[in-house]
Amino acid sequence: MYIESITLVRHGMTEWADQGKHTSVTDVALTSEGRADAEALWSLFVDQGHFDGIYSSPLIRAHHTAILAGFAHPELHHDLMEWRYGRYEGKTTPEIHQENPEWSIFRCGGPEGESPAEVAQRCDRLLQEWDAKGHKHVLCFAHGHILRALATRWLGLDLNFGDHLHLDPGSISRLGWEHDTPALHLWNYCPRSTRIGPGRSSR
Q1: Are 145 and 11 in contact (CB under 8 A)?
Q2: Using the 8-state DSSP alphabet, how is residue 61 labeled?
Q3: Residue 125's CB: how many other CB atoms inside 10 A?
Q4: Which of 11, 34, 50, 149 is most buried by a 10 A CB count?
Q5: What's the CA gap between 147 and 8, in Å, rounded?
Q6: How far is Cα 203 from Cα 194, in angstroms, rounded to an integer?
Q7: What is the pLDDT of residue 46?
């Protein structure tokens, strides 16, 4: 495999994310806090020449985050769009649990949206495409659940493992290697956060 590292950036805060609403195809914009999240990433990416593949979900919250972080022209890739929640679009987890108390997106998927198998296939396709292009260092701007799914598939694990990963808005993570084994090098680092405490919703 050519890929040496994949840097994952979750978009900054949106109104729906702040309210805990599941947001996939709804194209909501960043809030003022979300724009500050994205701008805080800029200093981490001064050496932009390090990346030979720079991608973003085409949805405005991810694309705008990439621009504010210093990447004016990322390649927009539909496979980086958020997991499609179907009937659960715009609902919070407590609202969904009123219908299905055992529900988890990674175990159950989105009714009338995407199944875990479909999302796993999408993530595998991304990894295969980037490797086929000979990328060594990939940077991608996307969404909480698809990035957790992508990390899980990088590790070679079943998508259920995504339930054990948390991503805050405006966070940065990195996938790499431990010798010959895929590994997490960095997870959920938030440049704007200087405190340790309860994390923000990853929905």
Answers
A1: no
A2: H
A3: 12
A4: 11
A5: 7
A6: 22
A7: 74
Structure-token match 């985050």, residue found: 65
Which residue in the list 11, 77, 143, 145 is annotated as catalytic? 11
pTM, to two decimals: 0.93
Q: What tokens appear for 199 in the block?
A: 């994390």
Give per-residue pLDDT as tens, 141-160. 999 999 999 999 999 999 99
CB-based burial of residue 72 (10 Å sphere; 0-12 exposed, 13-18 middle, 19+ buried)?
A: exposed
- Asked if residues 129 and 103 have their Cβ atoms less than 8 Å apart, the reply is no
Torsion of CA 18, 24, 27, 30, to 10 degrees: 30
Buried b (16+ CB within 10 A) or exposed e, 27-59: ebebbebbbebbbbbeeebeeeeebebbbbbeb
Q: Where are the alpha helices (DSSP H) in the chain?
A: 15-18, 32-40, 60-68, 93-99, 105-108, 116-132, 144-154
Residue appearing with tokens 């309210």? 19
Asked if 145 and 162 touch (Cβ cutoff 8 Å), the reply is: yes
- 11 carries an active-site annotation: yes
Q: Which of 63, 82, 89, 114 is catalytic?
A: 82
Q: What is the mean pLDDT of residues 83-91?
A: 97
Taking the C-alpha atoms of residue 67 and residue 85, their distance in angstroms, rounded to an integer, is: 26
Residues 6+ apart with CB under 8 A from 183: 155, 175, 176, 177
Residue 165: predicted pLDDT: 97
